[in-house]
Design a protein that fits this description.
Helices cover about 50% and strands about 20% of the residues. It has about 425 residues and is of the alpha+beta class. The radius of gyration is 30 Å and the shape is elongated. It starts with a helix and ends with a helix. About 35% of the residues are buried.
């Protein structure tokens, strides 16, 4: 107990000497945590966009080469509902690969489309509530000609909310079809998930392309209120589906399912969200590497800065250490006193650093970043939304405290090994 009291008293009376150490820990930890929370929020935003784009946590599709035709999708839907947990959202989709052969026209302006997604909006309300709308909403009635387009496409067309645009495409029989569409929503996304992607009613898209009423090529499953599902849960679902369907093994890359030569048209597969994001994962991994390097660099600054400076401060206190020895304090007790000082310094520095990180997060979350091209993939409603990462917080602060205390320990150990008479006689 007396070691604790001595440590606190020493910090209080020598606060001017320790202020520089506190500031190193304060700013180093604060910037590290800020970087961690920002990256966590950016990746979460990216995953949200991917969930909307791909329809949830995983999709169920066939190997039928006719646009992965599911056949009697209503029967498949009922079977899947019986095999899946009750708390999931299940919906059907028609993912239409426009291949830049489908256009929107408005007052003489043409914009090619890459992907058109036929969606049952009522079933996917939880997903589209995450959408970043500039105006309008995903409140599109079943069978209607409402459409959701991205902000860049709306600007290129010169169209706004409520305007009627024309969809130009060749249907399944090769005939040209022109279909009027009404813009019901304009979303803010210029990324790979949104720039040339359009959402419209499932039934309306099938009719426009000439597909029959039994056609669908996606069954999408989402776990509302959760950020992803575990590998163990996917494996359980895979096992359940294998009792009713001829299933391809789970894949980490969707291309392994698409191009497996052993597949037959009646083979089905579960494609997790992660398997759809292999190209994007390169970006995520690169971002994680950069953030990790920044954090490691800042942690090294904290460790080296505090460790080396503390050694100098302890050397200046050699007389004090000699007096402690002369009155009978053991070396372990002296080391404990000095380590308690540094531990308290680190704890207060990390706590203050966390507060700094929170302040920086609040400041940056109030800045609109839509002016940066292609950055919208990381934004939520045009803003960065940092996320607190409890695991990352405890790992980072734990690493800072442990490694710095280790460095201080070696500095202190050398000083307490001096003879008491030599310590008392030493000049500060």
């Amino acid at each position: 107990m007396y070691q604790l009291i001595l440590g606190f008293r020493s910090l209080f009376y020598r606060k001017k000497q320790y202020i520089s150490l506190f500031l190193i820990c304060f700013f180093g930890t604060g910037i590290s945590l800020f970087s961690l929370f920002i990256s966590k929020g950016m990746i979460a935003s990216l995953n949200e966009k991917a969930e909307v784009y791909y329809g949830g946590d995983f999709c169920f599709m066939s190997c039928n080469w006719d646009e992965r035709y599911l056949g009697d999708y209503e029967k498949i839907l009922e079977t899947a509902k019986a095999l899946l947990p009750e708390n999931v959202s299940i919906s059907i989709r028609y993912d239409f690969d426009a291949q830049n052969k489908v256009s929107f026209y408005y007052e003489g302006e043409e914009v090619l489309q890459r992907v058109i997604k036929g969606v049952t909006f009522d079933s996917e309300k939880a997903l589209f509530d995450k959408f970043n709308f500039l105006c309008g909403s995903a409140d599109i009635k079943k069978g209607s000609n409402g459409v959701l387009i991205s902000e860049p496409i709306a600007k290129k067309l010169g169209a706004g909310l409520g305007d009627e645009i024309t969809l130009y495409l060749r249907n399944i029989n090769g005939y040209i079809n022109t279909v009027p569409l009404v813009i019901k929503g304009i979303f803010q996304d210029s990324s790979v998930f949104g720039l040339y992607t359009t959402y419209m009613d499932f039934d309306f898209l099938r009719t426009a392309y000439g597909r029959d009423s039994s056609f669908s090529n996606r069954l999408c499953v989402d776990f509302p209120g959760r950020s992803g599902i575990s590998k163990e849960e996917l494996e359980k679902i895979q096992s359940a589906f294998e009792t009713a369907f001829k299933m391809h093994p789970l894949v980490d890359n969707k291309l392994d399912f698409y191009f497996d030569p052993n597949n037959t048209p009646d083979t089905y597969g579960i494609i997790p969200l992660s398997a759809n994001l292999n190209d994007v994962n390169i970006l995520k991994n690169a971002m994680n590497v950069v953030i990790s390097l920044i954090i490691v660099f800042l942690v090294l600054i904290i460790v080296v800065g505090i460790g080396s400076t503390y050694r100098v401060l302890v050397m200046k206190r050699i007389n004090e250490i000699g007096i402690y020895m002369a009155i009978g304090m053991k070396k372990k007790a002296i080391m404990g006193t000095l380590l308690i000082e540094s531990l308290f310094l680190l704890l207060t520095g990390c706590a203050a650093g966390f507060i700094l990180a929170e302040i920086l997060c609040r400041v940056i979350s109030g800045i609109k970043f839509t002016f940066i091209p292609m950055f919208s993939i990381f934004l939520t409603k045009g803003y960065l939304h940092p996320l607190f990462d409890a695991k990352g917080f405890f790992m980072l602060t734990g690493c800072v405290i442990f490694v710095t205390l280790l460095a201080v320990f070696y500095s202190v150990k050398k000083c307490v090994n001096i003879m008491p008479c030599n310590a008392i006689a030493a000049n500060e």
